[in-house]
Amino acid sequence: MALQKAKFIPGINREGTRYSADSGWYDCDKMRFRKGYPETIGGWVKYTQESYKGVARALHDWSAKSGANYLAIGTNLKEYVEIGEDIVDITPIRLTTAAGDPRFAAVNGSSVLTVTETDHGAVLNDFVTFSASASLGGTITDVVLDQEYQITEIVDPDNFKIDVTTVANGSDTGDGGAGTIAAYQINVGTNAFVSGTGWGVGAYGDGPWGFSVALSDTNQLRLVSQDIFGDDLIFNPRGGGVYYWDESAGTAVRGIDFSDLAGASDTPIASLQTMVSDVDRHVICFGVNALGENEIDPLLIRWSDQENAAVWTPTATNSAGGQVLSVGTAVVGAVKARHEILVFTDIGITSMRFSGAPFVYTFSVVAENISLIAPKAAVAAGDSVYFMDREGFYLYKGSVQPIPCSVYDYVFSHLQKEQQYKIFAAANPDDSEVTWFYPVGGSNAEITNYVTYNYAENLWTIGTFDRGAWIHAGTKDYPVSASNDLVDVNTNFLFTQEIGHDADGSEMDPFIESGGMEIGEGDDIMFLSRIVADLYLSGMVDNVDIDVIIKGRMYPLESLSTLYTTSIVAGTTQNNVRVRSREIAIRLEGSGMGYGWRMGDFRFDAKKDGER
């Protein structure tokens, strides 16, 4: 019997049936294509063993003039900076009370304290730090009280509860004394998008708007925009305030509101997104309150004076200003492109270009009836911007062009549209890839899946990954990602990606599976007797253990069943099998740790056979 080389069509094709994906690939996980051949992606390890609180949906890295490398981490609960693998809390303080304002009440046998603070302004899960307290008289000492606590229950506008580290006894009858001070961090956000409230829920003023809870940075999915102004960090929880962290002051200093900057004038109160322009160095807010107003205008763009993050009052002698967009009802997101900023509203895209005095920026509509599926669903890679709309994938390179997608129906039929605002895009220029991470599952689904476009080879792959954020990280040797554990939300981690071949000390379990293969037009039975594998192996090749699973069926509407399983190890010459079927599919699964593999040209010994 003669061997026949199988030439598989590169890329994953899910637009038809498995049968119609003849001689192609139908499914995979943790795989990519290079020069038309499938290979395993790189593994990952914890970037640092130090955890952080909340789910991070924003990462931003930069180098200061001092040579220090930083990574900003924006979670739904806090803002952090990482330096030297230490993760430091820089969450701003919104309120510091006068001495004696907060009072404690304990219950014998309970670790739960009720805190009384008039108009505390806190929401559930907020963080507060007490200092200068006095013992309540028993086990609840000043040492127990003078810590950071997360609020476990909001009783009313003047009372809330915390769970301290010690159980109270009958002697804890005090109230903390006249010297207790409370420092409240800015309100936390949620890990879920709430349908029916907030921007992105249809037209502004349409439907239930005004009858349900209005958007704020506390009752909506917390998305944080981050950018660098010189050596300093600017960050903005979507729908909330805009904050500034001074790198030169060190990590012991927290971020501050823009209104607290020296010389501040008419600084933003609330914004949907903030960035720093790359050439002219204006701080720009998208969807921001107008001058003298407190509420967000969802189509208004404002920018600071050039090279001055504190001054936002337009005058004849500065370049501060603003512009209301003409297309759409609300800004969804903005991304820096080559020599311009693309601003996505709910129904169009506007190009924002620096022009200098007197107008500072010019605005032109580049596309209508197209937008972003989520604020972070666009990313710049090379000289293009790739983005995901509610109905497809696109690139912008001077004009908007659709990207034909061979997994379109698979992705859009599986993603959880109620939580689509969690979707984010990430670039991997080392492998010419753009990846969109998206949620699948129930109404409060978290991100579990991804779809990757290789723009150099025009190929698509799919798979599973539970991540909240991902960044190429130019200051690092490898990309960095963030976990999105909602079960233990106070213990999430950063990961170094594309390193090694394992999943942080566990098996990565990559696989790839073909479409249906047959002899002729499928009216003959195929007898498969031998497989000669062609694989490039890397890493600890002595650990190689790749299962070759042969599935088959007689008719396209039948379910595939496993007909034969054989293994490839280091040094395998050929695999003798015995398979009879009208249609077969080949699946390669990697197990074990410490190695990666790339598939070449497999050869099969197959011939026509009879029914018996």
Structure description:
By secondary structure, the protein is mainly beta. Among the domains are: 3-41 and 508-609, Sandwich (Jelly Rolls); 93-185, Elongation Factor Tu (Ef-tu), domain 3, CATH 2.40.30. The chain has two helices and 49 strands. The strands form twelve sheets. A seven-stranded antiparallel sheet has the order 11-17-14-15-16-13-12, with no helix packed on it. Strands 2-3-41-47-44-45 form a six-stranded mixed sheet, with no helix packed on it. The longest helix has 7 residues, at 408-414. The radius of gyration is 28 Å and the shape is globular.
CATH topology of the domain at 3-41 and 508-609: Jelly Rolls
Structural class: mainly beta
Percent helix range: under 10%
Question: What top-tier CATH class of the domain at 3-41 and 508-609 fits best?
Answer: Mainly Beta
Which residues form runs of ≥5 with pLDDT under 50? Answer: 198-213
Q: Give the averaged pLDDT, no decimals.
A: 92
Summarize the structure.
The protein has 612 residues and is an all-beta fold. 2% of the residues lie in helices and 45% in strands.
Tags for this model:
single chain; 612 residues; Jelly Rolls; seven-stranded antiparallel β-sheet; globular
What's the layout of helices and strands?
Elements: E1 3-5, E2 9-12, E3 24-29, E4 31-34, E5 37-40, E6 44-46, E7 56-63, E8 69-75, E9 79-83, E10 86-89, E11 93-96, E12 103-105, E13 112-116, E14 127-131, H1 142-145, E15 148-156, E16 159-163, E17 181-185, E18 224-229, E19 232-237, E20 243-245, E21 256-257, E22 271-276, E23 283-289, E24 296-303, E25 321-324, E26 331-337, E27 340-345, E28 348-356, E29 360-368, E30 378-381, E31 384-389, E32 392-396, E33 400-402, H2 408-414, E34 424-428, E35 433-439, E36 447-454, E37 459-464, E38 469-471, E39 480-482, E40 494-497, E41 511-514, E42 525-532, E43 535-539, E44 545-553, E45 561-568, E46 575-581, E47 583-591, E48 595-599, E49 603-609
Parallel strand pairs: 2-3
Antiparallel strand pairs: 1-49, 3-41, 4-5, 6-40, 7-8, 8-9, 9-10, 11-17, 12-13, 13-16, 14-15, 14-17, 15-16, 18-19, 19-20, 20-21, 22-23, 23-24, 24-25, 26-27, 27-28, 28-29, 30-31, 31-32, 32-33, 34-35, 35-36, 36-37, 38-39, 39-40, 41-47, 42-46, 42-49, 43-48, 44-45, 44-47
